[in-house]
Amino acid sequence: MEQHDSIHTCPCAHNPETIERELEEVAALYRVFGDKTRVSLLHALLEREKCVNELASELSMTLSAVSHQLRILRQAHLVRTRRDGKTIYYSPDDDHVRTILMQGLDHVRE
Predict the structure, then answer these.
(1) Rounded to 5°, angle at Cα 21 from 90 and 42
(2) Comparing C-alpha atoms, which of 36, 32, 47, 35 is closest to residue 77?
(3) What is each CA distance from 90 to 20, 76, 82, 93, in whole angstroms?
């Protein structure tokens, strides 16, 4: 098996229950990333924050479908919101979201 220089070892200070919970959370995170529509929404938000109308137009989706998927992304802490009057703008929650998406793209492009 090939080893990579960037492999990180799991800190053994965690108890088994904590590790089990964290692994379940990671699996849930990747299930959210496992949907092409949600990944497309995240990708569209890498450029800049956007409202539901912009995302629906850009991705040729209904407002309802975009809102539904954004709700899932928000619950998973992958997007955050900013309100400006009646308009809500969405953006990636933090740099980890960008990193996860870009590393996935880099991996499939190799």
Answers:
(1) 20
(2) 32
(3) 31, 14, 7, 9
Domain-embedded: residue 55? yes
CA distance 12 to 30: 23
Q: Which two tokens mark 82?
A: 């900013």
Structural domain span for residue 96: 16-109
56: domain CATH number is: 1.10.10.10
Give the side-chain half-sphere CA count within 13 A for 99. 4
Per-residue pLDDT of the chain (110 residues; tens, 9 = 90+): 455 545 555 555 568 889 999 999 999 999 999 999 999 999 999 999 999 999 999 999 999 999 999 999 999 999 999 999 999 999 999 999 999 999 999 999 99
Q: What is the pLDDT of residue 10?
A: 58
